[in-house]
Amino acid sequence: MSLLADAFTVVAVLAGLFFLAAGTLGLLRFPDPLSRLHALTKADGLGLGLIVLGLMPQAGSLLGALKLLLIWALAMFAGGTVGQMIARVARRDAS
Amino acid sequence: MAAALLRSAGLLAVWIVIGGADPKDLAVGIPTAAIATWFSLRLLPAGMFRPRPLALAGLLLRFPVQALLAGTEVARRAFDLRVQPGLVRYVRISPSPRRDAFLTWASLQPGTLPAGEDEATGAVLVHALDTSQLVHDSMVIEEARFTRAFGG
Fold it and tell me: Which residue ranges make up each domain of chain B?
């Protein structure tokens, strides 16, 4: 059981790292600031989500697992609100 | 009153998840949750949203799937660079806290990122990575889902 949980953690965290790397790649390669924001809010959000998912079986308690989930929710909420604000400023600067 | 109780219970639950349920932690957590409830009611008066539990649960359960689709789409485009970025106008809802909440939700959905209003017309400008996709239609469908969950 513990081996299964550990294997799940390794797979999910590696997948999370892949999406964080893809988000960084998008940040570097996308042509304009608004497109780069997609990379930051969406690919990185998924990357963090998968890392959180992978770490949940290792949290040791339900409260610990919920805390990890809450961190993801807060990061996504912050990404959703701040992403829009930066997008608004970037668009005005471009026009 | 019911809204205040519900929100303070929710905020206290968040405190317990972060800080634990030790009595010495709760001594700080309970007043903090009370102050946060006061701010919450001032910033978002009770009754502005009327969530429907089933539709809301459906929306929340769908969120991780949408996050997966959104992240995968961006990752794929980061590798093959097939992007056709542009702004799409979205005029269906007038400015309100409900619209702001929906736009935050929409910014986490695949392919769309609201980027403020067009100053002249008041339309929301939504940035899309690929404007050949049906961006406006997907926003309409998502707004209907959001409205079912939060009322209004």
Answer: 2-43, 53-150
